[in-house]
Structures are given as C-alpha cells and as structure tokens.
From TrEMBL:
Domain of life: Bacteria
Domain TonB-dependent receptor plug residues, every copy: 63-162
Stretches assigned to the TonB-dependent receptor-like beta-barrel domain: 456-927
Family assignment from sequence similarity: Belongs to the TonB-dependent receptor family.
Matches recorded under Pfam families: Plug, TonB_dep_Rec_b-barrel
Organism: Pseudoalteromonas nigrifaciens
Signal sequence interval, chain numbering: 1-21
Cellular localisation: Cell outer membrane
Keyword annotations of the record: Cell outer membrane, Membrane, Signal, TonB box
Principal subcellular localization: membrane
Example of a GO cellular component annotation carried by this entry: cell outer membrane
Protein name: TonB-dependent receptor
C-alpha cells in the first residue's frame, strides 16, 4: 500500500514539475538571490584556524540553528572517529566506551534522540537501536559534518535532540585538479603494560584521492582508512542491589511495601577486571560525479566500515551469595549495605570466580547511494535520490569460569566452600577488599575450570529509501523559492540469540567435570598502580584450556532450548534456554513522508530576513514478530518451533503485531540580519524520535486464569510503541567579528517533551482487540465448567505521559588574535559552555532504595575549550572537555542506567609542516588518564571505576 501511495505521489509531483516549467516561460527571468551569499568574504588562513573560520562561515550562512565542522582537505581531521570530532562543538558531549567516544549526546539528550544521516541519507546502526555508533566512521573519510539543532521541513524526521549530517567528498567541488593525501601514525597506550597479554602499540593509516577529468565534467574520490589500536582498561564494577536481607536486626520502616521491614538491600557482588584486546577498523569511501551537460549532475557514492574487536576480560568475579549468606559488621548507606564480612553457609552460593572472558565483535556498516540533480529550467530543480544503508553485528561473548577446589590434584576434586569475603565500598574511590582464599587464586593446585559458555548475539538492520525533491525559484517579495518532495523508506531489523553452556559456574559438576589446569595454560597476574592491593589471580589461555577440555571428537558447542515443559529434546539437556528464541525476532517499518516548504528572503524595513516555513507529513506502518506463550494449546494456534539442532518447542504461537500512525511536523526558521556582522535567529518546530527499534520486537504472553478466567499478560518490549514528540523553540544571537577572525554566539532553547518510554501495568487491557489470540471461554480443570474470560492486566513498555521540559543556554566564543603583533598573532581560542536543565526524572532501584535520577544524557554543565597557536609552519593546541554528572548505561553492563560522575578529558596536539606537502604530528588523547566512574543513585554506592590510559599518536601527513 505504501509503495502505491508513493508512486501516485511521484506522478502528481512530476505533473506539477511540468506545469511549473511551462508556467516559467511567461515569468520574468530575474530571481532574487539571498543577500548573505553575496556578502560572503573569504579570508585566506591555514591550518586549524582555517578550519574554524570555514566552520563559522558555514554556520553563519545556514538557514537553521546548527553547528558546523569542516576540514581543509579530505583526511585532515585528526580525531580517531567522528564521535571525537563532534564533541568539540557547543552543546555536544560524548559517552566514552572503552576509553573513546562512541555515542554522542546533544543538548542533554542521549543518543537515542539523535538522528544521523550520511550524505543526506538515513543511517542504520550495529548497536541494535537507532543510535548510530560514530566510532564506525573514520574522520579521515569525512569532509564535513553538521549538527542541526533546529529542523526544517526538508530534513528527514527523527531527531528530538538534533540531526547529525555527515558528508563524504564531492570531488568536483575540490579546488585542485588532483589531490592526494596520506596519513600514517603509530599509536601507544601507556596502561597496556599493566595488563597481561595486552597490546601496547597500534597504528592509523589513511589514503585519499580526489581528481577531476574530462574538462572538469567527471570527478572521482577514493579513500581508505585503517585503525589498529589496543583496547585496554583496568576496572572495578559494582553490581546491582537485587536482593534484601536482615543484616543488623533493626527494624527499618523506610522500606518499600514488598520488602519486610527488617530487611536491608544487598548487592549481587562486584568484579575486579583487567581488559585487553585489539580493535581493527577498515573504512572505505568512493564517489564518482558526472556532469554531462551544464544542468545535470549524477553522483554515486559508497561508504563501507568494518570494525572488528577481539578482547578479553580477566580477573575476579565476587558473588556475595544473597540472603543465604551470613553478613556481619554490615556498613549501611541509607538502607543499602556498602560493606560487610560475608561468609558462605551450607545452603548458600557465596564464592569468588576467576574469570577469563573472551569476546569477539564483528561489525559491518554499508552505505550506498545514487543521486541525480537536474536543473530543468533556470527556476526549477529536480533531485532524485536512491539509497541503501545496511548494518550487521556479530557479537560473541565467551565466558570461562574457574573456582577454588580444596585440592585440584584429587581424583574427585571438591569445591572449597570455606569462603569469607570482606569488602567496603569507598564511593568513587576503589573499595577495600579481602578474601580468605586469596592465596589460592593464583595456585593451579587449587583452581579448576568449572564452566564454559558462549552467548552469541547477531543483529542486522537495513533501510532502503527513495527520495524525490523539487525546488522552484519564485519572483516574490517574501519568498525566494518553494521546495516540496516525498520520501519512502522500507526498514527491516532482526536479531538472533543463541547459547552454549558446559559445566557449572557455582560448583563442580559430576556429569560435566571440571578441568585440571597445567602450567602451560596459565600466567600469574599481579595488579599494578591504584589496583596493586588486589590479590593475584590466574590468567588462563582459553584456547589451550578448551582444547584440553574438548579434545578432537568431543561434543561441539550447540544451541538448545533445553528440557522444559512443552519441549521435545532428544539431546537430553536439563536447562531451559527458551529465552534465546523469545529474544530473537524481526521488526518491519515502512515510512512515507511528504513536505512543502517556503524559503523566506524579504526585508522588514531595511532589515533583511531569511529563513523558511514548512510542514512535513509522516505516515508510519510498523510491525514486529513475537512469540505468544499459549502453553501448547493447539486451539490457540500453538506451533512447533524448531531450532538449529532439531529441538522442538511446542508452547508458542508465532505472530506479527503492529500499528500505523500519521504525524504532522510544522517548522519555522527565521534569521534577522541586525547588522552586516550580527544576526538573530528564531526557530520553532514539532519534532519526533522513533523508539529504539529493538524495543519494538519482543516476547508477549497472555494467559487466562483457570479458575477466574481473567487474562493477564506481559511483554518486555512493545510493537505498539509510538515516537517521542516534542515542541521546541530556539533563539540565537550571533555576532561575527571583522576580518572573519571569530564570533560570539549566545543561544537559548526550550523543548517540551510529550512522553517517554516506561514499563507499566495496564489494567483492563483489551487483549483480543490488540491482536492477541485469546479464547472467549476457558475450562475449569476441577469443575469442568466453561468460564468466560475477562481482560486483566498487561505489563509492557509504553509511552507514558510523564514528559516535561528541557531547557538551556549555550555560549560559544571563537577568536583568532590576528591583531596582536608577531609572533603572538598566531594565538587563538575556541570555547563553548552549555547549561541544561530538565524536570524529566525517572526512578531507579539499582542501588537498593528507590531514588530519582535525571534524564539520560543530560549534564547540567558542559564546557569545551581549545587554545591554539601557530607560527609559520608550527602549530599546537590543547583541548579540554568537561561535563558534569549525567545518567547513562553502565559501562560493560547492558540496560543498567546509572549515574556517571563528572569528567574532564584533556587532549593535546602539535604539528610541524616541513614543506607544503609533508608534515609531522604528535597527538596525546586523554592526557590526564581520566577515568569513567559511575554510581547507583548515591555516590557512596559504587558502580564502575574504569581507567583507560593515555593514547599517544606520532606520525606524518603527506598531501600533493
């Protein structure tokens, strides 16, 4: 139906195109041009100053509230990825993962609210959500970037926080006939020496070429960028407070209604880890432009990224044992235990695991596009664009557990259950820890491998899009042109989970016995630096251990549902793994949008006014596969679902559920030219961000009570989720200095968010009306009577009504001090400050007691400053980025949204240009080795403390 609508709309637009072209023959030939383009003054500067001025000029002459990032040449941006580059812009901050920026936040909103395009085309992600991972995009292959903080009708919808537009090269726009750039840098991480087997050195290499041929009618651009770098960290991870126990014998009336008054909240445990590994990213870019005649241009471009990560995590995982453990000398923060002596009991599971995890992540991003631009007449322009964006992620989490035996040399080894753990959290500092088994952690006569598990997670995301745009120049005292067009996109997302487990992580299994370690399989690892007081442990060579445990001819890893009710399992497994199928599925999304926009070019008195006003209509048809648990009832449609090795589950009904909706998104952008160098912008718009695409797929169950007939159900996700909506307003005062050597910008913004996704219980839910296959009657198994069913409670993710405002101010100042006498005329400063606040809050109980926390991604204060200096061929700069505390997902633990402490990241760079073509560069990222630190609602309840080390780059650039 969507494709039929699109075809009809395109035919109507082509008819309009012909009518406009015919009408033009009687129209005057004079077209009013925007005054700003006529006033553009180009000042010739070089290096970092030139990039700043170029970015300011682009910001100055855009028709929306935006930030611009520009490079002198393709391959000239020095940052590791576009995430690092974008965080230098006002109002933008990053969440560091593995020591480098991956997700960006705009104006206090997390990556899920950021829409991203490449060459104007929607990009999908390897993250399993809509938030793209910007570290997939090498800065060497991006020629410019823009962050649109206010939308216009012609922009693709999707960004409540903003839209990030990345651009690759347009070779016919290059100033030179041929341009060739080579970058080569070596890399060193100064913390790698603390991690056993970690890689210390890496490299970055890139090549790019742009050329013009056939009298500048054919342009070619090619680029390749390779990054090989160590992935290193040393960390402490506190785990969530997911249980309770009376640890002090004192009643406490502040507990929630579901917790007995005498109980305190206790943590699952904590981990002490060394992380190491290697990251390899290969990026490829190609573009070809052809202008066979003056009024027609055809361009095709390709961008590919392959990001492979092989990493390990080694150390100690402490399981405190829950309510079955004995707690003495408990230390409380509120009603949460932050320190105690914990001992294992006969029925408990308190233990210390020696962990040796082996992770692999293979990510692919592909983007293809063809664009045709036809200047039909002097006034009418037609643009057609066809694109494909595709992402694949194949993540394999491999875990190797080892436990302490009383005697690993015994013929039938027994787990050492004499376990005592002492710990005391110290807030954002590292904790005090002590173990009665500490000496055994590094002794092969005590430690045995007890379990191995593999947990693959694969997802694919693909969007095909077709776009048709028209622009017609007007002879009007108010409007310079009208733009209108349509876009159709078809997106499919799928994920697939599987699992293999052998052994037991809590004890030694008799049927799957533990592995005795030998000296050639292990190394004794000591902690260093701030972590040096932690006990040594055995680092196990996973491959050697597995080869000994699973010799040739032994059973190979398999995926299994397990042995549960309704499962036909010829393999005889005893664990239910049905979650692997319940968490697998597909999402389908078709979007048809159309827009109309008038570009404003007029005067109020003698003051020029530019801008645009328009509206965008968006029709969305979304659906997702689910498995409804109907307990094997064939009358309700239960089907046999078979996994890859023939195990059959009979409990579920496969189904596809979804919804359709239509949105109207008006927008207004005005730019008042107060003076030649000063302008005032105002923008207002309704904006939307669709829910994370993985939140649309999920399991759903609906079951009627056999006695009462009441139907209750639940789902982790929800295929009926609607977008986030917001009404937003922007105002910006911009003053550009004479001689184009800087600018002062003061901006304010206000967003009124309608709703956020939350998990709630819906009473009286209409199951049948919402597509669930539920019976009208159910038979009471005792009386045999037919009981009429009634609607009960459905617990699911929904768009709740608890929205609220986000508001803030932004200050940005850039100054090239060219008026100073030599040699100080090469000094300059670029800085910005953002203050953001919001009334939006959520609640968390990860730290035990339920407390409120802020909007994910929001730092009240974000500060970014760069001091730079150039003298002849020498250039240096120091960049400082500060963000106050914020809320985001816990490092290394998915779906735990916690508080992160404030952080200050310092980067340094210096370079020298020996000739016009050849230069050297030294770069140090994270100069002060700033850690990432998080906590559970209260700073004294430690989350993660993670140190990444400094990354030092040394290399050269050659351009010709």
């Amino acid at each position: 139906m969507g494709k039929f609508k699109l075809s009809a709309l395109m035919l109507a637009m082509f008819a309009t195109c012909n009518a406009l072209a015919a009408a033009e023959s009687d129209a005057p030939n004079t077209v009013k041009k925007p005054q700003l383009e006529e006033d553009l003054e180009v000042i010739e500067v070089r290096g970092f100053s030139r990039s700043l001025i170029q970015s300011l000029n682009q910001k100055r002459f855009t028709d929306t509230v935006s930030e611009q990032l520009s490079a002198d040449d393709l391959g000239a941006l020095p940052d590791v990825s576009m995430a690092d580059a974008l965080t230098r812009l006002p109002g933008i901050s990053a969440v560091r993962t593995g020591g480098q920026a991956a997700e960006i936040n705009i104006r206090g909103m997390s990556g899920g609210f950021v829409f991203s395009t490449l060459n104007g085309r929607e990009q999908v992600s390897t993250s399993g959500s809509r938030s793209i991972e910007f570290d997939q995009y090498p800065s060497e292959l991006i020629s410019s970037a823009a962050v649109y903080k206010s939308p216009k009708a012609s922009l693709i919808e999707g960004g409540v926080a903003g839209t990030v537009e990345l651009q690759t090269a347009s070779p016919l726009n290059n100033d030179q006939q041929h341009k060739f750039v080579v970058n080569a840098r070596g890399m060193y991480n100064d913390r790698a020496s603390e991690v056993n087997d970690a890689t210390e050195f890496g490299d970055r290499i890139s090549f790019s070429y742009q050329g013009k041929y056939l009298d500048d009618t054919l342009g070619v651009a090619l680029g390749y960028a390779r990054l090989f770098q160590p992935s290193v960290a040393t960390q402490f991870i506190g785990q969530a407070y997911n249980d309770h126990k009376d640890v002090d014998g004192v009643a406490n009336d502040t507990n929630g209604p579901e917790v007995k008054p005498e109980n305190e909240y206790i943590s699952e445990g904590f981990e002490l880890q060394h992380l190491g590994g290697e990251e390899t990213r290969n990026g490829y870019m190609a573009a070809i432009e052809w202008v066979p005649v003056d009024n027609f241009k055809l361009k095709g471009d390709v961008f590919l990224s392959r990001f492979d990560t092989e990493s390990f995590a080694r150390g100690l995982r402490v399981k405190l044992g829950g309510p079955t453990a004995t707690y003495t000398n408990a230390q409380l923060e509120g009603n949460s235990v932050v320190g105690a002596s914990v001992n294992r009991t006969s029925k408990g599971y308190t233990r210390v695991e020696i962990l040796n995890d082996d992770n692999q992540d293979f990510d692919e991003v592909d983007s293809y596009g063809v664009n045709a631009d036809w200047q039909v007449t002097e006034r009418l322009n037609v643009n057609v664009d066809v694109s494909l964006s595709r992402a694949k992620s194949n993540f394999r989490n491999g875990l190797l557990w080892a436990l302490v035996a009383e005697d690993a040399t015994a013929q039938e080894p027994v787990l050492d259950k004499n376990v005592s753990i002492n710990y005391q959290l110290n807030g954002l500092n590292l904790p005090d820890v002590g173990f009665n088994q500490a000496a055994a952690f590094s002794d092969i006569d005590r430690v045995m491998v007890s379990k191995y598990g593999i947990y693959p997670y694969q997802n694919e995301d693909e969007v095909k899009a077709y776009r048709l745009d028209f622009k017609y120049e007007l002879d009007n005292s108010w409007f310079s042109s009208v733009e209108f067009g349509a876009r159709y996109s078809d997106r499919e997302y799928s994920n697939n989970r599987s699992v293999f487990e052998y052994g037991n992580d809590g004890d030694f299994s008799a049927t799957e016995p533990p592995l005795r370690l030998t000296n050639d399989m292990v190394n004794v690892v000591d902690w260093e630096g701030k972590f040096s007081y932690f006990p040594s442990y055995l680092a196990i060579d996973v491959d050697k251990a597995l080869n000994a445990w699973f010799p040739e001819g032994a059973p190979t890893p398999v995926t299994t549902w397990g042995n549960a009710d309704g499962v036909v399992d010829p393999q005889g497994y005893t664990t239910n793994y049905s979650w692997t199928m319940l968490q697998s599925g597909s999402v389908y999304e078709e979007v048809l949008s159309a827009y109309a926009m008038l570009n404003i070019n007029t005067e109020i008195g003698t003051m020029p006014v530019l801008g645009n006003i328009g509206i965008r209509r968006v029709d969305t048809d979304q659906s997702a596969t689910i498995l409804e648990n109907v307990n094997g009832d064939l009358a309700l449609g239960a089907q046999n679902i078979t996994d890859s090795i023939g195990i059959i589950n009979q409990n579920y009904l496969p189904n596809v559920l979804g919804t359709t909706y239509t949105d109207y998104l008006p927008s207004l952008n005005l730019n008042f030219q107060l003076t030649d160098n000063t302008q005032l912008r105002f923008a207002a718009a309704k904006v939307m961000s669709r829910p994370p695409i993985n939140r649309l797929a999920g399991d759903a169950s609906a079951q009627a009570d056999e006695t009462t007939g009441k139907i209750n159900g639940s789902s982790t996700n929800n295929p009926f989720l609607k977008p986030f909506y917001a009404d937003q307003y922007d105002i910006s005062y911009e003053h550009y200095f004479d001689e184009s050597d800087g600018a002062l910008v003061i901006a304010g913004f206000y967003k009124n968010i309608d709703s956020f996704i939350d998990t709630i219980a819906i009473e009286g839910f209409d199951f049948k009306g919402n597509g669930f296959n539920v019976p009208d009657y159910i038979e009471n198994p005792v009386s045999g009577e037919q009981v009429a069913t009634t609607n009960g409670t459905y617990t699911t993710a929904v768009n709740n009504a608890n929205g609220g405002y986000i508001r803030g101010i932004e200050l940005a100042y850039t100054q090239v001090l060219s008026f100073l006498p030599a040699p100080f005329d090469g000094l300059g400063f670029n800085g910005s400050y953002s203050y953001t606040e919001s009334e939006v809050e959520s609640i968390t109980s990860l730290g035990g007691e339920t407390v409120t926390q802020g909007l994910p991604g929001l730092s009240k204060n974000v500060l970014n400053g760069t001091i730079f200096y150039s003298l002849d061929n020498f250039e240096t700069r120091l960049n400082v980025r500060y963000r106050s505390d914020f809320v985001s997902e816990q490092v290394a633990i998915n779906e735990q949204v916690v508080n992160f402490d404030a952080e200050t990241v310092v980067d340094f760079q210096t370079s020298y240009q020996f000739t016009d073509s050849f230069g050297m560069l030294l770069q140090v990222n994270n100069l002060t080795d700033e850690p990432t630190q998080s906590y559970f609602g209260n700073e004294n309840i430690t989350g993660t403390t993670q140190y990444f080390g400094r990354q030092v780059y040394l290399g050269f650039t050659y351009s010709h």
